[in-house]
Q: What sequence folds into this?
């Protein structure tokens, strides 16, 4: 018997208001289908403006949908009320891209981590105990609870953001470019932390990124989005080693390499694929 997915996005469409008076709405998602299984990391990859972050925000209830459904745990949450969304925050959390702006600069780390626990009914003493556990889990010292976000590096702040997302023990975390604002060595440490936390807790990830190499490292499956349409979906190893769609191949070729001769060849291949895509008749 096939197990129902934890997250099921079907026929999702989102439109934003057009520019100017009486302008027609601009549709940015054109009937997207996507599933995430329990305990799975599903990568959503595409270039800037492709619509990948809009999908994550729709799952979180931060943008309105114009058509389609979003189901979580078998329940339709597409147009959940504010009260229902607050209840869902126990099960669905988010790690945003920028660790410098996603944390309240006027609160201590302890207050930042305790806030979602208290909102969901934890007693202050229980919340403080849970904060200590969370700091240990993400590799931060216990005295971090008394400090402000500005006292930490970018990688450490992102660890705090991950700890905050883990606080209510969610079933799904939407990771929206969680390492793109970090340097390479810090990226690797944060990615390894996310993998370790998934093994230990069984949390599922919808992992949004523009980098296929990061998605290959992190995810079981990957969906490639281009101009509001999913153009390819499959196991991460298959999609990132033998992509079928020209756009996915272009994304792979966009990753820089150290050899200038090889890089020149990749640049030329990207140009050829882009020209062929423009010349192809619309589907």
A:
């Amino acid at each position: 018997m096939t197990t129902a997915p934890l997250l099921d996005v079907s026929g999702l469409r989102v439109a934003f208001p057009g520019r100017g008076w009486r302008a027609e709405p601009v549709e940015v998602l054109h009937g997207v289908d996507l599933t995430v299984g329990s305990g799975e990391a599903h990568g959503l990859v595409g270039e800037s403006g492709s619509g990948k972050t809009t999908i994550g925000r729709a799952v979180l209830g931060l943008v309105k949908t114009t058509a389609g459904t979003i189901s979580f745990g078998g329940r339709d949450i597409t147009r959940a009320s504010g009260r229902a969304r607050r209840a869902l925050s126990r099960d669905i959390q988010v790690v945003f891209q920028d660790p410098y702006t996603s944390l309240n600069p006027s609160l201590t780390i302890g207050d930042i981590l305790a806030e979602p626990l208290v909102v969901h009914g934890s007693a202050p003493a229980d919340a403080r105990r849970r904060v200590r556990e969370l700091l240990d889990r993400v590799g931060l010292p216990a005295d971090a609870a008394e400090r402000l976000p500005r006292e930490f590096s970018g990688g450490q702040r992102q660890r705090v953001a991950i700890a905050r997302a883990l606080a209510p023990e969610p079933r799904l975390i939407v990771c929206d470019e969680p390492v793109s604002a970090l340097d390479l060595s810090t990226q690797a440490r944060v990615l390894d932390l996310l993998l370790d936390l998934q093994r230990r807790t069984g949390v599922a990830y919808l992992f949004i990124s523009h980098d296929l190499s990061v998605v290959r490292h992190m995810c079981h499956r990957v969906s490639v989005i281009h101009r509001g349409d999913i153009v390819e979906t499959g196991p991460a190893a298959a999609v990132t080693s033998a992509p079928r769609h020209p756009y996915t191949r272009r994304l792979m070729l966009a990753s820089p390499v150290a050899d200038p001769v090889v890089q020149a060849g990749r640049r030329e291949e990207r140009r050829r694929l882009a020209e062929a895509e423009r010349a192809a008749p619309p589907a």
Remarks:
- Strands lie at 7-16, 26-36, 41-45, 67-72, 75-76, 92-95, 172-176, 204-209, 221-226, 229-235.
- The CA atoms of residues 100 and 262 lie 36 Å apart.
- The mean pLDDT is 89.
- The radius of gyration is 20 Å.
